[in-house]
Amino acid sequence: MKNSQHLAFLTIATALCAAGADDTAERLIRASTVFAEMTTPKGGIQPQQIAEADCVAVIPGFKKGAAVVGVGYGRGFISCRKDNAWSAPAAITLESGSLGVQIGGEEMDIVFVSRDKSRRSKLLSDRFAIGSDASAAWGNGKTAHADPNAQILFYGKTKGAFAGFGLDGATIKPDDSGNKALYGKIIRNSEIVAEMATPAAAEPLIEKLDQPNQ
How far apart are CA 189 and CA 122, in angstroms? Predict the structure, then answer.
């Protein structure tokens, strides 16, 4: 870990210590890094897509078969538009029994972009099912595939390459332990996005959302 990253991690770890965070500090750093890498000028998610987004989520290190054999699992964070800024991030999990990496690798970094504000309440609910609650498309970093009018666009990258993946059966749920680590208590994701101030620990991620491609 580079000195600057190490210092940032120590700062965030200190901020989360009182809340009993385990790996939340490290995951916030990874989420910030992943988002920055996937919105680079050389290829990736375009700044215009972020500018037009209602909510953006980052799941660093989604692992196929991590929780139960045959089931993919990952933990990350979601932030939504709040006036002219991005909201405090809420912790989420992404689970799927059929999300399969189409190119090599068992671990993938995932960013998804929701373009439909009317879907926000469901997206932040106790269980949001991709496919039934909203159509979705995956992207290779430059273009979206499948349904061009999909309300949610997913982008995945593994080992430096953009990857395609299926979405049938994927669900997004609140991560109560992650939220408790960040805010000191279990709180609904909808309340976090609407009411909570961004904790110091999450500022690096929100800063990246504010300035994609930089």
Answer: 11
